[in-house]
Amino acid sequence: MLILQRKNNQSLTIGDNITVTILETGNDWVKLAIDAPKEISILRTELLEAASANQEAASSQLNESSISKIKDLMSQSKNSGNT
């Protein structure tokens, strides 16, 4: 990890086509301007983490639902075999 110190209106360049400029700073925040090509995805980390957590929760629910359906089918199969 590279750690840099910048002041308001100073920039840094990443590669040949991404520029990050410090627009404004406060006591516990920084306003950034990011100039990058449209094909570069720029996401806030907390949104990426929330999306990942939502996907995990959906996957878990899907698995629990699938297991429940399988159990129901097995139970029906056992019951139909006993008649």
Describe the structure.
With 83 residues, the chain is of the alpha+beta class. The N and C termini lie far apart (68 Å). The protein has a 3-stranded antiparallel beta sheet with strand order 1-2-3, with no helix packed on it. It is built from 1 helix and 3 strands.
Query: Quick one: how many beta strands?
Result: 3
Return the structural class.
Answer: alpha+beta
**Secondary-structure element sequence?**
EEEH
Q: What is the overall silhouette?
A: rod-shaped
User: Helix count?
Assistant: 1
Rg:
25 Å
Largest sheet: 3 strands, antiparallel
In what range is the share of β-strand residues? 15-25%
User: Main sheet: which strands, in order across?
Assistant: 1-2-3
Low-confidence stretches: none
Mean pLDDT equals 85
Q: Distance N terminus to C terminus?
A: 68 Å
Helix content, binned percent: 40-55%
Short descriptors:
83 residues, alpha+beta, 3-stranded antiparallel beta sheet, 3 strands
Please sum up the structure shown.
The protein is an alpha+beta fold and 83 residues long. It is 45% helix and 22% strand.
Would you spell out the secondary-structure blueprint of this structure?
Elements: E1 11-14, E2 18-25, E3 30-35, H1 45-81
Antiparallel strand pairs: 1-2, 2-3
